[in-house]
Amino acid sequence: MNTYCSYKKILEHIELIQEGDIVYVISDIFQLAKTAMENNEEFDLNIFLDTITAKVGKSGTVLVPTFNWDFCKEKTFDYDKTPSMTGALGNAALRKRDFARTKHPIYSFCVWGQDRDLLFEMDPKNSFGKGTIFEYLVERSAKAFVIDLPSMEGISVNHHIEQMVGVPYRFEKTFTAGYIDWNREEKVKSYSMYVRDYDYDAEEHLDPMNHVLECLNISNTTIINDIPFRVVRLKEMAQILEYDYRYNDARNTYRFKGQKKPKILTEKYVW
Question: What count of other Cβ atoms lies within 10 Å of the Cβ of residue 42?
Answer without folding.
Answer: 9
